[in-house]
Amino acid sequence: MRYICMWVLCLLVACSTYTPIDVEEPPPASGSTRIAAQTTFGSPERRTTLWEIDQSPSGGYYVRGSYQDDRVIGTLSSTGIDLQTAGEPFVIRDLLALPGAIGGASSVALLAGWHEANGTHPNYYLALAAYQDLTPSTQFELASDTLRVWSNGLGLISTTAQQAEVIAVGGVAEDVHYYPFMLRVRVESNLSWTILQQKIFYEAPLRWFNDVVVAANGMMYVAGANSGSPDSAFVWCISPDLDVAWEVGVRPDNVDYAVISGIALGPTALYAVGRAGVVKAGDQRWSSGLVAAAALDGSLAWSKVVSVSDWGDRYNNCAADGNALYACGRAFSAHYYDTNRKYGHALLTRFDGSTGNVDYHLTFGDTSFESGFNSLEVAGSQATCVGWTRYGLLGYGFQGWYVDIDLTGAVTTELPSFSSLIDMRRAVPVEDSPDEKRARAGCYGLSTRTSGTTSEP
After folding, report:
1. What is the value of pTM for the model shown?
2. Is residue 249 classed exposed, middle or buried when 0-12, 13-18 and 19+ CB atoms within 10 A define those classes?
3. Where are the domains of the chain?
4. Which DSSP symbol is given to 146?
5. pLDDT in tens, 7-36
6. What is the SS3 assignment for 296?
7. Spatial contact of 170 and 151, defined as CB atoms under 8 Å apart
8. Mean pLDDT lowest for which of 193-207, 248-262, 353-367?
9. Handedness of CA 142, 147, 153, 158 (dihedral sign)
10. 20-51+252-457 domain in CATH 1.10.760.10?
11. Do the beta carbons of residue 116 and residue 449 sit within 8 Å?
12. Of the ranges 118-122, 230-234, 277-281, 310-314, which is most confident?
């Protein structure tokens, strides 16, 4: 086991600034009868989206995203949304709301990501931050003189009233060589940080980790990708000692690529969702949804490509609820090049977790612009989804979107019809929507702004 041998640890107490945001709330963006509540926010001329929600112990959700081009975090509930600019000057990749308060705070949220290279550190370096009751409190940094270090995901190992243990996953890079990386830390009652374990997986070159979930027995399940071949998606099971228990590759037959964007742990399987490249309308390469299940013994239970439409489909995240798997994303997504118009609907799909069969698809939005979901939480007969809507012109503005979806009664598939509105034979696939795309830090010229949008690399 090798470690990052030159690192810097910084504890910054109450050092960050934050600015509350007066949220604009335009009219609703969808008239679906399944919508129990919805809020759109942000000017349609600017770029606003939510990338992630996580349940808050004090009620409602913590959220992170971009509000009119500024990185934001905040809280969200049926009574409204409270956003503020994120005080940390680093690229935020994940949000973890602790299920219980520590240090006397009513709620604590942790952020993970990386700082870009600067005059102090010549390389990208890992950054974690703690927010207490939505106020920035402390920050942790891990830097190296020889390696780039970054974090894409956070998982909760354990928590008490005095402390919490979390695992941060990501990667390190030395020149053009990439390796997965894990860092186990303890957050103390005063929100200071203590390193417990760290590991670079030198036995797995050209890879990095994107996401992690932790089981009750301490086993950690991670998803990642291969920097030498982006179509090589994988999931691993890793022990509490940071040893690899098993690995499963996720790429169905007859696809050009496979990318995992979200994972969820069910009673008997680890689920993964994302996108896969297939040839569809106009003999062009479009994305379709990707969904797979790995049994907890390390075997691939099933994997499927889900084509909701003849155009762009993808899943951005998922949630397991008993034997059901819910996945959110977008469908019918395309760019009509004659008018520069964007089209597409937000998508929610429920799968049978045992077989991968589709129970139903639900789409939300309007046929005059693009909408999409980035993250979701499911509780009983309600799904809460966040993302964006009213993306009408390629490279221009869109609004943030929060939707509560009623799943009571007999739910059947609901899909839009574009046939009377536009000639989709002249549509082309353009991947510039504000889905979150987790990747390695600072490689191949990736940045936090692409194609004039706030989509992450």
Report:
1. 0.90
2. middle
3. 20-51+252-457, 87-250
4. S
5. 444 444 333 444 555 555 555 566 678 999
6. coil
7. yes
8. 248-262
9. negative
10. no
11. no
12. 310-314
